[in-house]
Amino acid sequence: MSSVVREMIKDHERMARRIQNFMWEGKPFKSKKIEHTVEEFEDFLEGLRKDCWGSYDTGACEMGWRE
Predict the structure, then answer these.
(1) What domain range is 38 assigned to?
(2) Overall domain count for the chain
(3) Distance of alpha carbon 21 from alpha carbon 35, whole angstroms
């Protein structure tokens, strides 16, 4: 497996775990959901957006799509 694919999979797992930890106190769907303010949601989504673009940029550079 190429390092690009491996890193993409790891990034997806990391983001999924961030979402789970943001939404639930414990295991997803089996524990209480955490209530957040609109500002907390906006900050969380902005962080995910930045991480997604960072992951894309890294992969695109490694694939030679951009420098």
Answers:
(1) 3-63
(2) 1
(3) 12
Are 24 and 34 in contact, with CB atoms under 8 Å apart?
Answer: yes
Burial class (CB in 10 A: 0-12, 13-18, 19+), 65: exposed
pTM of the model: 0.81
Task: Report H helices in 1-67.
Answer: 3-23, 38-63
Rounded to the nearest 5°, which phi and psi values hold at 24?
Answer: -125, 150
**Tens of pLDDT, residue by residue, the chain (67 residues):** 678 889 889 999 999 999 999 999 999 999 999 999 999 999 999 999 999 999 999 888 888 888 7
In DSSP terms, 33 is beta-bridged to: 24
List of residues 6+ apart from 57 with CB closer than 8 A:
66
